[in-house]
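Q: Got a minute? One more chain.
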Amino acid sequence: MNKKKIVYIHGFGGSPFTQTVGFLNLYYPDYEWCALEVDHHAGASIKKINDFAKENNVFAMIGTSLGGFYVLCSDFTGPKLVINPVIEPMKSLKKSVGTVQYHARRSDGATSFKFTMQDLFEFKKFKFIVNDNVTCHHTEHDELLGDDIKRDYEKIFKNRKMCPKKTLPSHIISESYVKHEVGEFLSVISR
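A: Always. Here it is, folded:
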């Protein structure tokens, strides 16, 4: 049986080796989860996502935080779920210029990276696309992106949902969120 492939893109300083990917595999084994490792280089990361989508029969994409921005900037036209997406990387990531610690292990074993002003300005080259295939889930309060982001999401995303605190308590995805809200998204796109 061929499983539908869904690409998962982690956020800034993240990794595909996280509990989130484990939860996706645990709760939705009928899908093939393809967690790509991206980084703070916008051009290379978006190219990696586009190349993977072109070379594989991708059914849907899910991205969190900066991964959401990358998914929105990708050429992929199928269903997309972006969770607490960064929509203004120049503003949101400016405070991260310097040495950044990775949140989880990376395939190359690196534990940190240098994020420079040049890396930050690379984001100016990219604009995201929002259409009817894009769904945005966001928190009631986002400690990383701030509370003003909700107004931006309301302006930008037609398909959006502010998730209850019990399922999406912060910027970070919980097991409850994966179990309930991702399941709801998958049931809608699989009809």
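A: Helices lie at 19-27, 42-55, 66-73, 89-92, 117-122, 149-156, 175-189.
Q: Perfect, thanks.
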